[in-house]
Write a structure and sequence with these properties.
The chain has 245 residues and is an alpha/beta fold. The protein has helices at residues 30-38, 54-62, 77-87, 106-118, 134-138, 183-191, 196-201, 205-210, 230-243; strands at residues 3-10, 24-25, 28-29, 46-51, 66-69, 91-96, 124-131, 144-147, 153-157, 172-182, 215-219. Helix 3 (77-87) crosses helix 6 (183-191).
């Protein structure tokens, strides 16, 4: 069995929060908070920060991370990760961990690795959580997932799925944007053209589903705080301040 690598794509030019990975909270840049969670995952052999920014690259080296420069022309994090994986034939399993998820649990990262490494039928793995809040269920920014009886994803959507023709039967799951890949699956997916469903919903994982790839899910019990906006940043600062109070 080859190596398992957690790769963190980190772009400088975020549209809503420029230079986001380098914003410091409690004396540490956000990318370092994410890296420190990643290195605590028991099932990973290495953690690599993949970036198009020399500033992020140099910062990563300063706090002791393995980092690699990548093209600035990638359309997505998975394209950036695939560039790194192509340089490393020794890597067989990959986790795509977003650089703006500083509160991800290390145990949850291990769950993603376990599902893609130990399940022969899974090309990709990811995490979902139970949604009970009506606003979240109806919010197009909260991606929903429908699964089969074995935990494989049937579909992801920004719409409320399933539609409740008859109330009281459905369970709603929210998707967390972390993925595990078998090497061949990542390279195949990033070489495929964007699919009709992906372009419609703006969800990259639909390209994999539409091309017959299988995505195994695990249900976790935490609510992520992804940092996309100034409001998200303030929320994260408050959580950290409470932890260190």
């Amino acid at each position: 069995m080859g190596q398992t690598a957690i790769i963190i794509p980190a772009r400088y030019g975020s549209s809503r929060l420029k230079g986001k990975p380098l914003i410091e909270v409690n004396g540490k840049p956000i990318i370092q908070w994410v890296f420190e969670k990643a290195v605590k995952a028991n099932l990973a052999d290495r953690v690599i920060i993949a970036t198009d920014s020399e500033e992020i690259y140099n910062t990563a080296l300063m706090f002791g991370a393995e980092a690699e420069m990548t093209s600035e022309h990638h359309n997505s994090g998975s394209d950036r990760i695939a560039e790194v994986v192509k340089r490393h034939p020794e890597i067989d399993y990959i986790v795509n961990l977003q650089g703006d998820e500083p509160l991800i649990k290390s145990e949850s990262i291990d769950e993603v690795i376990k599902n893609v490494r130990d399940d022969e039928s899974a090309d990709i793995s990811t995490l979902i959580r139970i949604l009970t809040d009506k606003k979240e269920i109806e919010n197009p920014n909260q991606v929903k997932c429908v699964i089969d009886n074995n935990g494989y994803a049937l579909y992801f959507s920004r719409s409320k799925i399933p539609f409740e023709r008859n109330e009281g039967h459905a369970k709603f799951y929210g998707h967390l944007g972390i993925y595990g890949y078998k090497r061949a699956a990542l390279l195949k997916m990033t070489e495929l053209s964007q699919s009709m469903l992906e372009l419609s919903e703006s969800l990259e994982q639909l390209r994999a589903l539409q091309n017959g790839m299988r995505i195994k899910t695990s249900v976790v019990d935490f609510t992520p705080v992804g940092i996309d906006t100034a409001e998200d940043l303030e929320k994260f600062k408050k959580i950290i301040a409470a932890q260190f109070a």
